[in-house]
Structures are given as structure tokens and as C-alpha cells.
Amino acid sequence: MDGVPRVPEQRGPEQSATLRFGVLGPVRAWRGEEPLATGSPQQRALLAALLLREGRTATAAELIDALWGDRPPARALATVRTYASRLRKILDAGMLVSESGGYAVRGLGEDALDLTVAQDLAARADKARAAGDLCRARELLEQALALWDGETLAGVPGPYAEAQRVRLEEWRLQLLESRLDLDLERGRHAEAVSELTALTAAHPLRERLRELLMLALYRSGRQAEALAVYADTRRLLTDELGVDPRPELRELQQRILQADPALAEPSSPVTEPSVVPVRPAQLPATVPDFTGRASFVAELSEVLASAEGRVMAVSAVAGIGGVGKTTLAVHVAHRARAAFPDGQLYVDLQGAGPRAAEPETVLGTFLRALGTADSAIPDSLEERAALYRSLLDGRRVLVLLDNARDAAQVRPLLPGTEGCAALVTSRARMVDLAGAHLVDLDVMSPEEALELFTRIVGEERVASERQAALDVVAACGFLPLAIRIAASRLAARRTWTVSVLAAKLADERRRLDELQAGDLAVKATFELGYGQLEPAQARAFRLLGLADGPDISLPAAAALLDLPLEETEDLLESLVDISLLESAAPGRYRFHDLVRLYARACAERDEHPPSEREAAMSRLLDFYLATAAGVYAIERPGDRLVDHLAPTEYPGLTFQDRRAARDWLYTEANCLLAAARRPADRPSMLRRAIDLLWAALDISESGANSREYEATARALLDAARRRGSPRAEARALMTLAHAHVDGGRFEMADREAEQVIRLARQADDLLPVCWAHNARGIIALYQNRNADGEEHLSEAIRLFRALGDRPGEASALCNLSRIHLATGRTQSAVSLAQQGIDIYDDMGNSMRGANGRYALGMALTQSGRLDSAADRLHEALEVFRDSRQRLWEGMTLFRLAEVDIAAQRPAQAAAKAEMALTVLRGIGGEWRRGNVLTVLGHALTRIGQTDRALVCWREALRIYEELNAPEATAVRELLSPAQAA
Questions:
Q1: Are the C-beta atoms of 462 and 498 separated by less than 8 Å?
Q2: Please, what is the angle between helix 683-695 and helix 669-677, to 10°?
Q3: Which of 311, 443, 504, 646 has the fewest Cβ atoms within 10 angstroms?
Q4: Each residue of 856-879: pLDDT tens digit?
Q5: Pairing between strand 398-404 and 344-348?
Q6: Contact 53, 62 (CB under 8 A)
Q7: 523 and 514 in contact (C-beta within 8 Å)?
Q8: Are 696 and 662 in contact, with CB atoms under 8 Å apart?
Q9: pLDDT digit string, tens, across residues 600-614
Q10: Backbone dihedral angles phi then psi of residue 71, each to the nearest 5 degrees
Q11: How many Cα atoms are found within 13 Å in the side-chain-facing hemisphere of 145?
Q12: How far apart are the first and last CA of the chain?
């Protein structure tokens, strides 16, 4: 601690020298930021007694009793007066007053005493909770709890101080229970389990904490553990106090046994702490020149207005592309905003494109918009949908689902609660969307079309050429998107007359038959806009359509177009101005999905020579590979992988620090993987695509894009096999094996790594051979094949040294350390891990140095040097968290739990194991989860929660038996024969 109390600073500069006092910890005083000497323990006891009376007078007899109880010294009164005299010297004049033979402290500022501040914060939290603002309530309680600095009145003697210590500790626990209750109300049950496990160990007889733990476990899908907590509690209360659990706890047990649906969902929205509740306002801007559609606006508005009295109002607007579905829906949604005060959600579901948005991904975006932390977002579609509906329960939110593919894509995204409404647009009529109000949107009437054209072009220009204007809108097929593009083009060219535009549209070579109906009408409208582009704009439009991914950054677009950054930005912004491109965010651009398809068709039709298309994609791939290689080099100084990647002709970005490099990698993850997938059928780019995936392996380890990474690796492996290239196949297999190790699929990974060795040797490509031996060594460790593992790792060390790859050597040394540890050679395990760390540190490789510290921490734990082990593991944990390596963050928490078990700190071990389970959700695989559950069971047994421990071990045993893992034997021994059966 720094000696300064954590009391919120609310004073101006002129008051910086005012007095402040702390009793929620050691009794201390400060003048401004300068600590004051408060004297002996008895003198501090006197100061505390006066401060806690909040200005009321304490008689001499009361003070003597407070300091010494029934055994005062002979000169107690004189001693009290001496202490009071000394305190006057440090306090402001007139603050310590003598009155009626006693003393009082008067004239304190409102926030001068930390206890007073805590009381005020708690009162404000109660008001916020009563008003339904759970986010603010939790934030205020967290501030109040943060004011405690260790034991209340620490080191202060006397019966009064002891009584106040007990009272204030009880109040602190009540505040903590209230804050945890808010966590559960807000859906943060998974995170709460870790803290509640530790608290129930520290306060085993406190039933409210046990109740909260049962509810948190149940909502985390751990029903058996929740019931085991009740059994542990009942046994403890009977043994210690001879009583049964309180009625609330018994009722909760029965509700869990009955799977009461009301228990499964939090009663309030999940949000991160903030000043106000999260109210998303995601609707795109409505167009200022919205025209016509009056009957549709009225019809849809009436349906939305009925949402308050219905379970859910759903309207589905269908029509061809370009007919104005989105414009109508956005306009109606803006008109209805007042009826949905809790927010509006919006998403483009990309239903008309080749890869429609996955409901699981959309739900993740919606949950974040509603304030849910990434760590609290479940992995499965069903869990995300359930949490989403829970967050919307009791709220009035409008959800606009734009450009849907079909009803199956939409169903998980519907709110499903009274007061909420959904507005859906799609090219398909959703007759199979139960209960939906269907609206078929046709092209505009001639009058509406002319009005829209006039609003964009201007009344003056149209009035004198009304017939020509009618010819224009007719040539556009009365399709709003076509009319808007034509009118915008005319509005931007003041020298053109309406007749000039009409004549151009009359040319069938330009207008094409596609203007007549259906999707072909959309293509015709794009053809109109495309035909008016300057050559440089047209080229940019075509080539940008070749890039996959949700959007494209300005530097990536510059690489694709082979143009300077400034010129690229001017071109892209000009395309934005004429609505052929959208600006997703500063420096990022995207196509409407239909425009992308049309742009790609234009590239295939108009780009000459055709080799320019492949050259553009080659430059984009070069850009991503060169940049990813640069990120890899920054994260892993000295690693030789970058020297063995395919050469690139187009440069990538450079970064000044690790954080900027890391941010780029995770921001570009989806675009990067899309760029790697695209060359699967282009032999000339296949090697670079595979190497891009290898250089970007952190995407897999982070857990954020693990599935997409694995899918891309499979696609590239298939392409390499079709091509018959041993080199490409070996490298693709290496990336896939890496993904499978991260996912805990060790048998698959081992088979793939074995193939890598054979194919890479055949191709004389030594680096994948090194990596594969290293991977097979650690896989063998996981499978309890230690002799095989040592053989592979020894070979990996030899090969890495032959290549001069010192970080690779360090990795294999640290892995070999774990083999030595598993075979009882503890001292050599410590030595090997330290050798690896020395290499990493010498090269400034902090991220992989964390892996070395992880291995060393394990070895030190087994050697009994627990403090050093904890230090090394905490150092590793800090790096993994900063590097967003969720897999290794979770595993390091697991190893720290093992340290706590060995150090006889079972409550801390249980808390860390719970944190590990939370971090590892969705990554790492079942085998790793089984390991964490086993350690959690050991910790729970030591804190008296034996029934819950048995549940953890049974689940671990089930996992191990399904995987045929050797750890099953040890877990069976932890369970009695009857329990194991």
C-alpha cells in the first residue's frame, strides 16, 4: 500500500490541505496527501472512538471503558487527557473539543472519514438498485468495498475497537453479498463462482454466500455441483451448530431439483459497470429525402406500436434487391424510437451474399452492445440466444434484422419478450416465420418514383423536363436504388440535362434487359453507376470486389490497387460519395453484399488482361503475409520462422511497438483468414496463403478466431493435396496440428505432425520437421508417453540448433523440462526450463519467455519452492493477459491453483481453478477442463465442500474416460468404488 486512503477525491485545489481520516484499515490521518503521526496504539484507539461517534461527545468514563474495559490503569483519566492533548497538536484548531468532562471531534468535512464515504456510497447504491439501475448500483458498491484496506481498526486495542471491528466486518460482508447478488442478477454467474468459492471457504457458516454460490453454479450449467454445495452446507451446519440450513437455502435446493425455469435466467440485463445502463442506438441514419411508401409506413408503424401488449411484434419486409427494404425499415424504426426507450439494435445479416452472418456471431455482437463483457458471453448458439432473451426481458428494445437469408437465420435473433419488437428485411418472403406480419414491398409507383427523383435532383431541373424525368424513372424500373443512383449521378453533373440522362438510359446497351425485374434490376442499377465511373474509379471498384472478408482497411486496399495510400483514399472516398462503397469506420471500407457481387462480376468481365485480377489478389496476400510476419517478428524476436516464409514482393505495414502490432493482428483476423482462404484454388498463391496462416498462429491460440483458423487450415490442406505439393501439404498440416493441440485434440494432432515430418523431409523443408518433433514431444507428454516425448524433443533440440533457431531450441528445452518433471527428474527439469528462459530473455522474447516461466513454475512447484513458483507463474500470467492468449492465461491460473494446493491455501486454489474454467470456456479442449476440475476437487475437499468436490471428480472422470486418457486411473482412486460406478 502507498499509505494514502482510497477515499474518492472530491476537493478542489484550495482544499488540498484538509484533514482526512481512515478507520477501514489501520487508523490513519492525512493532511492533504501527507500522512500524520497518530501516536501509540492506545492513542489511535482514542482517535478511533471519537471518529466513530460522528461528532457526539464521549465522556471520560466511556473513553476509559473503550480503551481498557474493566481493567483500566491507575492513571487512566490522566492518560486519556495526555492522548487528547497530543491529538490536538495534529488536528485543526477547534476540531477536538472538550465538553462535559469528555471529548468530541467536530467540523469534519463530508468526505473526511472513509467510513462516512462508504456509508454514502452504500446508500446511493440502494437508491440506484431501487430505481432499476443495477449497473450503477454495482459500481457504487464496488467503490464502497474498495475503501477497505485490510482489517478494520487494525492494530487498535480495547473492547470498543474489537466490537466495532466485528460490526464493520459484518457490514462489509453484507455489502459484498449485495454486490455478488447484483452480479448474478446481471448474468455474471460464471465470473462470480470463483469469488464465491473463496468466500465460502473463508466464511463457511455464512449461508447467504452458500446460497449465492449454489445459484451461480446452477446458472453456469453445473447443477450437480450446486446441489453438492447444499449437501456440504447441511452437513457442516449439523456438525458445527446442530441446526438445519435456513428456509431460503432449502427452498433454493428444491427449485434446483425441480429445474425451476425462473432460476435459469438472470432477472436483469447483463452490462459492464458504467455510469448509466447500456442503451444501444445502432440504427443507421435515415435518408433525408425519404419519399412515398405512406401505406407501408403506416402499416409497419401500427405493428410496432402494438409491441407493448404482445409477446413480440415481428414484421418481415420482403422484396427484390434495391427495392428499398432497408430504407423503409430504417425510416419506420426511427419513427418508432420513442416507443422503444431501452434501445435499438441493428445488424446486416448479409443474406444475399455467399457467406451470410452466423446467428451465433450476431448474438455475440448484440450481447456486447447490451453491455456484456467478452468473458461472460457463452460459446454455444443456444446459450447466447438464452442470455440475449434474458437481457431483453423487461426492456423495450427494437431489433432491426436487415438483409436476412431465411427464417432459420432470424429465429435465434428474435427477442421473444413482451415490449420488444423485431423488424426484418429479406429478399425472400418469410412465410415460415411463425407469427410474423408479412409485407411485400414492390417497386415504387410512377408518382413516388418521380417524387424521389425530384427530391434528389431538384425541383427546378425536373419541372422543365417532366417527361424526360418520367422516362428516366421508367428506365430504372421504378426501383428506388436505381432511381437514387441515377439521380445522384445527375445531381453531381450540373452540365447535364435530364434529357441527356434519359437518352443514356434509352440505350439498351447501357440499360440492358436486366432492368425489367427481379435481381437483374439490381444489376442494371449498378451498371448505370458503374458506367459513369472514371477509369481509375472503375478499376478500384472492380478490384475491391475481389477481396473477401467483412471489410477492408485502407492500407490493404492500397496494396490491392497498387496505389499510394493517399490516392487510394481519394478513390475509395469518391466511391463512398456515390454510394457504391460504404465507410464502415475511419480507414475501413465495405461493399453492400449485392454491390460486391456485381463488382466481382465486373472484374471477371472487364479487367484486362485477366492476369491483373490474380496480380491484385497476389498483392493483397503479400500485404497480409508481410505484415503478419512483421507482427510475428516483433512478438518473437530471433524466431527463425520469418526467414522460412515464402518471399513477398509487396511490402506490409511496420509497427513501433508490440501493442500496435498485436492490435493489427486481431483487428484484421477475419480479413486475414479470408485472404488466406481465397487462394485455395490458385497454385501460385497457395504457399503464401499457408505461410500466412503459420505466421498468424496467435489467432488460434487467442481463442477469438480458433474455429475460423482451423477451417482455413483444412481448406488449404485440401488444396495442397489436390496440387500434390509435399511442401505445401506439410506446412498446412503443421498449422492444422497446431490448431488441434490448442483445441485438445491430441490424437489428431499427433497423426498430422507425424505426416509433417515425412512430407517435409521429402520436400527438404527442415523447419516444419523441427516444429513437428516439438509438437509430438508435448503431445506425448499429454498422453503419458514420456519416453516417446523425450525422443521427439531431443531431436527437435538438435534440429533447431542445426538451423540456428534459438527460440525454437528454447521452446523444446522448456517442453523437455516438463518430460523430466513427469519422470521425477525435478532438478534437471528446473535447469532445462531456466536454460529456455535464458535464451528467450537474451533475445527479448517476452511472450515465449512467458511459456518458459510457465514450465519453470511447474518445476519449482514440484521441487517445493512454492514462492518462487508463484512468482514465475504470475510473471507469465501478466504477459499472457497482455498478449490476449486466453488459452495460456487459463492454463497459468490452473498451475497457480496447483501452487496454492501445495502451499495449503485451498480457498485461493479453488478460486483460481474457477477462474481458469471461466477463461478456458470454448478453448483448450475437454482434457484440459478435466485437469482443472481435478484440481478444483482437491481444493474443495480441503475447504470442506466434499460433495461438490465429488461432482467435479465425476465430471473429470467422464471426460478422461471418453478421451481414453491415462488420468482416469488417478481420478478413479479419488472416488470410492460406489461413487465411481
A1: yes
A2: 150
A3: 311
A4: 999 999 999 999 999 999 999 999
A5: parallel
A6: no
A7: yes
A8: no
A9: 888 888 877 888 989
A10: -130, 60
A11: 17
A12: 52
